[in-house]
Amino acid sequence: MARVLTFDQEIANLFYALDTNPVQACIQCGLCSGTCPAVAFMQHSPRAIIAMIRAGQKQALLASEAYWACAACYACTVKCPQGIDVAAMMYGLKRYALWRTHYRKVPLGADFSRRFVRLITRYGRSYEPGLAAPYLLRHGLHGLMDEMRTALGLLVKGRLPLRPHRIKRAEALRRVIGQILPVGGRA
Amino acid sequence: MTAYSYFPGCSLERMAGSYHVSTVETARALGLDLQELEDWNCCGATAYFHIDELLATTLCARNLAMAEQAGRDVVTPCSGCFKNMYAARAHLREDPDLAEHVNAALAEDGLQFQGTARVRHLIEVLVADVGLPEIRRRVVRPLRSLRVVPYYGCQILRPGKAPAEENAPHFFEDLLTAIGAAPMDFPLRDRCCGGSLIITHRRAALSMVYALLRDAEEHGAEVIATVCPLCQVNLECYQRHVNRLFGTRFALPVLYFTQLVGLALGIPERRLGIGTELISPAPLLARTAG
To answer: Which range marks the domain in which residue A65 is found?
Structure first.
């Protein structure tokens, strides 16, 4: 019978190709949580996330979506005395969640990432208004007003791109991407 | 004159257009030959790494392979692009299997990664290749005691770099001193601005920006100097949002280090893209000029 992987074994596989120590090396000192600028917005701190992985608390961790508050600034990675690339672990958890979770309501971070990848597959370059616009209504009425004033200010100053820039060899880039991930007809 | 493959990155095309023009002007004045990498593509930002690491590495590898063809090192003013391409190059050089896999994909565009082109951030090129003595020699309009906080941000100091650089960098302060400015103590100088959380987790990002603005102001800053387009946008364009959320009255201009260096070299403000800010540095700059 096939071996069923435990949660910490699955996470170990995420780390397989990375230059990092496994989460088993963690001494629970909490330097990662102490240095994290986004920790106040995580239901579980980076230190607690590692403890949950080791305790096999997969459902509780995935349900919390705590890792989507990670900005990937690597402060935790630099501070870790045990050589664990905590930021890479957060990236890994985001990918894991995208593969293994059937979201009822897709977290903003996951939705944004998917849109971003579609945009680059199509044009080869990023386009800020195309990325930000779908979320305008998500920041409340005051947020929307602030956003519109900022956008108008940027427009007046010539800082708002009006259309995406398509690279010359966009088709070739698409074929390159197609060698790694299946890309649909319309991307 | 050393030639570099210049990688502006997507933000510099419009949102951070002043970073692009001030990079070009300042580099020219310092005798750096920046040749824009033809048909470059997005570095993958952070979003690509959420979806697929191999794909993110491949995107970076395409740019690196094109720079190799041109026989030049890559230089970028964007900290995010720098970190992604720097890390991708390191992974590809350490792992021949990964490089083989990526090269099979790049063959679709007639390219191959070998790992010969290095990846540099523009500030490192200014400090290490041009050198501070040379910059000091070329200053014609020192930024007399302009109180600037050097905001390193997170990505240029992160993994794989020398521990001394990660823990106690001083090259940004040194550069500001060389152009006559007064670098102020800034304890949060390497703390993250929130990056793309500004879209995906607005409250978290605004609280991170708030902490930085407060720290800068408490340490007497008149202007924040930055080395990254994302940091500039988050710190400047979202100050209004921060002020509303936290009841503060921040009005701190945020300029690119290339604009400050350019000013000190005597380049006219307009050619450095100054005047496109949402928080004008004009009163401040009028004082330094006087």
So the answer is: 7-100
B19: in domain: yes
CATH assignment of the domain containing B67: 1.20.1050.140
Q: For the whole prediction, is pTM greater than 0.90?
A: yes
For B208, which of A37, A132, A157 is closest by C-beta distance? A37
Q: Please indicate if any CB of chain B lies within 8 Å of the CB of A69.
A: yes
Cβ pair B108:A69 closer than 8 A:
no
What CATH number does residue A23 fall under?
Answer: 1.10.1060.10
For every residue of chain A, DSSP letters joined together read: -PPPPPHHHHHHHHTTTSSS--GGG-----HHHHH-TTGGG-SS-HHHHHHHHHTT-HHHHHHHTGGGG-----HHHHH-TT---HHHHHHHHHHHHHHH---SS--HHHHHHHHHHHHHHHHSS--HHHHHGGGGGGGHHHHHHHHHHHHHHHHHTT-S-SSPPPPTTHHHHHHHHHHHS---TT-
B104 and B147 together in one domain? no
Query: Average pLDDT, whole number, for chain B?
Result: 94
Say what the ipTM of the complex is. Answer: 0.91
Query: A119 and A72 in one domain?
Result: no
Do A146 and B194 make contact, defined as CB atoms within 8 angstroms? no
